Amino acid sequence: MVTMIRLDQYLTERGDYQSRSRARDAIQRGCISINGKVCHRPSQPVGEKDAVVASDAASAYVSRAALKLKAGLDATQYSPGGMVALDIGASTGGFTQVLLEAGAAHVTAIDVGHGQMAASLASDARVRNLEGVNARDLDREILQGIDPQFIVSDVSFISLKLALPPALDLARAGAFGIFLIKP
Q1: How far apart are CA 129 and CA 183, in angstroms?
Q2: How far does the chain reach from its first CA to its final CA, in angstroms?
């Protein structure tokens, strides 16, 4: 008798995704195929004989937001290589992860929330994770004298008009950044 389980559960148990919700998201975006056919149903039953293929670039990152910064870096040809970076609105750390992969020497990640940063990033010696920090309150003391050379931001609950000025005032001369603008 062949045992069948839900596709989202299968992908999580196989290790493709950290949670069923991330697996469901990938399925609904059309990133999963079963036996050569794209599947959009997280509840689709699969068995051991089914060929399940995940073709989701986001699965390599702690959040899909990482793909947005990656696209921005590719489109602009900017590189944070060797630079000190600041990630405003870090959340789980998607932007931080991309900055590190692109060669940033150090990333200070700030977020008003607590306990959101992926453990793999929070424990990275190149990352300083500052939780409970509102971007509007950013000052030299909070940054411990670091002058960011590269600033990135993906904020949802505060306008960039409020979040960016303190960071820009603290940035090193000639610094640049990539900021996600939401309607």
Answers
A1: 28
A2: 52
Give the number of other CB atoms < 10 A from CB of residue 83.
20
Q: CA angle 130-133-139, nearest 5°? A: 95
pLDDT digit string (tens) for 34-68? 999 999 999 999 998 999 998 877 777 888 889 89
* Structure tokens, 78: 């900017």
Residue showing tokens 């610094």: 175
What is the spatial distance between Cα 137 and Cα 108, in angstroms, rounded to a whole number? Answer: 15
pLDDT-derived band at 1 (thresholds 50, 70, 90) equals low
Domain containing residue 113: CATH number: 3.40.50.150
Which residue carries 């559960």 as its tokens? 9
Residues 27 and 46 reside in one and the same domain: yes
Q: Which tokens sit at 91?
A: 């959340």
DSSP-based three-state secondary structure for 88: strand
